[in-house]
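Working notes for the structural subgroup meeting. M.R. asked for a predicted model of this chain before we commit to crystallization trials. I am recording the input and output together here so anyone reviewing the notebook later can reproduce the run.

Input as submitted:
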Amino acid sequence: MKTFRRGMGLAIILFVWVIALFFATAWIVHLKIVPVKWAGILEDGAVLLGVLGFNRLFGHVPIQWWSGKKLGRQLRTTLPALILVGLLVAANLSKLLKLPFSGLVLFYAGYVLLIGITEEVVFRGVLLPIVARSFHGKPLVSILISSAFFGGLHLINSSHISLTYVLPQILFAMLMGTLFAGIYVRTHNLTLPIILHSLTDLSVIVQLIQHPTNANNLDMPAQTSLIVAGFYGVLLILAIIWVARQTKNDTIKTEI
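Returned structure, recorded in token form:
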């Protein structure tokens, strides 16, 4: 019972706390207390501070921000994620370069970096080792559960984006979450997944510049949604196989 309370039980409470913070900040934006432009930064900033505070008071897990040991091996561990992120960057970089350079581009670039920091701290830095308390010696199980939490969080988007768009988004989040968690467990270096995560979200800059207050263009026909979801599902299976091999002899540090 104690293991559950300090492990999966606490992880569930943390997940609910994150959702509550998102809805609380969305309510503040709805009341027009802060400009819509600052909505994302307010949300992610509140979640980041809220989760760091939660960890200090209740979680007490170590966040391993950086490790300079064997950087070459660390980079090899990132290879599958690096390939996927590289493809995404290549697809979005041309769109990004076509945007007129302005302070707004830098503003949203900072926001994208904040997304990477916040989501990696929450799901890899804090939630993953909390889950691992319930699954000692089973890093893959902990990784998959934390990635399922990460994918599940994206259900929030269905409140303003079509479900056909959100379904592939959930599977993509689980795919990348699995790879990022594997990198963190293997390297003890949260900086690497933060950088890769931020690069993954370059398309957010284009989206916010072109459609700052409208998500209607984020739609997808049902058939296309199923095809894309199936493709991500196959990649997720391959990612699980890769991470299982990479982390089978690793342990997740769960106590400060």
